Amino acid sequence: MAEESSGQEKTEDPTPRRLADARKKGDVAKSMEVPSAAVLLASLMTLYILGDYMLQGFLNPLRYYLGNLHMIKIIPANINQMTQESMFFSIMIAGPLMAVIVVVALLSNYAQIGFLFTTEKITPKLSKIDPIQGLKNLFSKQTLAQTIKSILKLMIIGYIAYYEINKVRAGILPLMDQEAYPILQFVGNTAFWIFLKCALTLALLAAADYAFQRWQFMEKMRMTKQEVKEEAKQTEGDPHVKGRIRSIQMEMARRRMMEEVPKADVVITNPTHFAVALRYAPSMMIAPLVVAKGAGIIAQRIKEIAQENNVPILEDKPLAQALYRTVELNDSIPEELFQAVAEVLAYVYSLRKKTG
Question: Which region, left, alpha or beta, applies to residue 296 given φ > 0 means left and ψ of -120 to 50 means alpha?
């Protein structure tokens, strides 16, 4: 298995991003055999279906011109008309076949790689005309594999042709006593079956080649574990940087929370583990809000700020624990805690009246 310069083996499947980057450069799994086999098979079927139409389209103008040679004058005045007529007959004869070839060629490529437009492969590069690299490519493993594949295809097609001709060999000699049309019919029928069987064989080879090309491409695109990690960092961000950003965001949120403590009406404590600051403005709020809460060091800091700003601090273990665990920051207290919080606020308001 191929190794990177770092010595790590490519053991990981390619990520979607790696495949997308390769696709942008024109690197995709594609077999050149598929369009060739598809075009050959489609052409044969078109000739089989439209053969009579195409033959008549060829014979009719031929009969006309040969039968009227004494009347046809090739002069500058009618040369344009004769050229246009010839072109029209040619298009009518070969047009359906050419249309089928173009459509099948496009569809066979689209079926393999979908719609892809890139100029990467045709961009001029000095490395493409490097003679040393050219010699290396000439004697590379890929070139050797292509040569062996071509020889095998030639041998298979040759055997199919020999087998088909050998089957009809007994009918070749009697053709000497036949007219032109039976001879053409015999030759056309034999050639059709030879080409059809060759086309079907090439289609099977093309399917196998496409499977091989896709496997080879996926092997080429495989990644090392380090490459996967680096790509994850580029896609999602460096975990250390993300952690640093997250800590800064938490610190900013904590600072904003501490700024709300002086505006609180009361701080309810555990007394040492939890601290929850509540604020209630009857004209603006339906229920009291939790404007700050924390545990441990944060709870201690909330109490210190409350003391500095003369915010009442009351100890109520069950209520402090319930508020800390069930109410999110800047949320209203739930209905089941209305009674307990109301009693606390009533006590705080009474203290304020006494201290006037």
Answer: left
Determine the angle formed by the axes of helices 16-24 and 180-221, rounding to 10 degrees: 130
**197 vs 342: CA distance, rounded Å:** 92
**Rounded distance, CA 203 to CA 41, Å?**
8
Question: Is the preceding omega at residue 271 within 30 degrees of 0, hence cis?
Answer: yes
Alpha helix segments (H runs only) across the chain = 16-24, 33-67, 79-113, 131-138, 141-167, 180-221, 225-236, 239-260, 297-308, 317-326, 338-355
* More confident call, 202 vs 177: 202
The pLDDT value given to residue 5: 43
What pLDDT is attached to residue 138? Answer: 67
Give the predicted TM-score (pTM) of the model. 0.55
Q: Could you give the strand order of the β-sheet that contains 274-279, starting from the edge strand earlier in sequence? A: 289-295, 274-279, 266-269, 313-315
Strands 289-295 and 274-279 turn out to be antiparallel
What are residue 292's DSSP bridge partners? 277
pLDDT digits (tens, 9 = 90+) for 217-235: 888 888 888 888 887 776 6
Distance CA 120, CA 25 (A): 5
In order of 8, 123, 134, 355, the CA distances from 126 in angstroms are: 31, 10, 12, 90
Pairing of strands 266-269, 313-315: parallel
| Other Cβ atoms within 10 Å of 347 Cβ, number | 13
Q: Name the β-bridge partners of 267.
A: 277, 313
pLDDT tens by residue, 93-135 = 888 889 999 999 999 988 888 888 777 666 666 666 666 666 6
For residue 191, pLDDT beyond 90: no
